[in-house]
Amino acid sequence: MALMLDSLRKEVIRAHLELVRRGLVMETFGNVSAFDRASKVVVIKPSGVPYESLRPEDLVLTDLQGRTVAGTLRPSTDLVTHLELYRALPEAGAVIHTHSRFATIWAQAKREIPCVGTTHADYFPCAVPVTRDLMAREIEADYEFNTAMLIVKEVRDRFPLDITAVLVASHGPFCWGPTVEAALHSASILEEIARMAYYTMTLNPAAAPISNHLLNKHYSRKHGRDAYYGQAPAT
């Protein structure tokens, strides 16, 4: 187990540095976590530590109740949100929260990202959803937990669609995947389609989403049992 968690720590560190390299974060915005379901241990960024100075030993390890099992620093303030996503989304092995510019613009505008082109359809099977606003009592009572509940509701409302990102209204995106690399990929693609949609709607405010036929065709070419994009696995 120790070797697995050491490897996970290194993956989480690499993901943080990659977020910086890809321009998806600045300062200490955002966080990455990973979950080893065998040991039920979560590895997460410590709160407020600059990305460039992060070391594997700085990362905080907790259980699913949020109790620290290794590390001396305080975990990210978004820890509870990450934990609840792992509870609710059995396919999630990593969660990434960023304040990437264009995805956050859509979140602050409280608008879902419409599928106005096939690039979006290649990666997301629907518009990228945005949550409703948190009520005052939800903010005061348990802000991070209730944030997670809004995200989960958006996912469940679209079951069985394969959604790997949700915009939290007035806040920013949360993305996930079965691995750290997959979650990082989701965060990167989300920002790109957010940028494309923003400029599309700026150039043509009347631009309409593509048809469901075209959306489903493009998504199914890359995802699911009938996918035929790329090369067949080696035998």
Provide a compact summary of the structure.
The protein is α+β, with helices and mostly antiparallel strands and 235 residues long. Helix content is 43%, strand content 13%. It has a single domain, classed as L-fuculose-1-phosphate Aldolase.
Key attributes of the depicted protein:
235 residues, single chain, seven-stranded antiparallel sheet, 7 helices, alpha+beta, L-fuculose-1-phosphate Aldolase
CATH class: Alpha Beta
Q: Could you tell me the CATH topology label.
A: L-fuculose-1-phosphate Aldolase
Global mean pLDDT: 94
Structural class: alpha+beta
Radius of gyration: 18 Å
| Overall number of domains | 1
Overall shape: globular
CATH superfamily annotation = Class II aldolase/adducin N-terminal domain
Strand content: 5-15%
Unreliable spans: none
In total, the number of strands is: 7
Instruction: Provide a count of the helices.
Output: 7
The biggest beta sheet reads: 7 strands, antiparallel
Percent helix, as a range, is 40-55%
Alpha-carbon distance between the termini? 31 Å
Question: How does CATH name the architecture?
Answer: 3-Layer(aba) Sandwich
String of helices and strands: HEEEEHEHHHEEHH
Strand order of the largest sheet: 4-3-2-1-5-7-6
Write up this protein.
- With 235 residues, the protein is α+β, with helices and mostly antiparallel strands.
- The protein has one domain (2-222): 3-Layer(aba) Sandwich (L-fuculose-1-phosphate Aldolase).
- Helix content is 43%, strand content 13%.
- The chain is built from 7 helices and 7 strands; from the N terminus they run αββββαβαααββαα.
- Strands 4-3-2-1-5-7-6 form a 7-stranded antiparallel β-sheet, with helices on both faces.
- Helix 2 packs parallel to helix 5 (136-157).
- The longest helix has 24 residues, at 180-203.
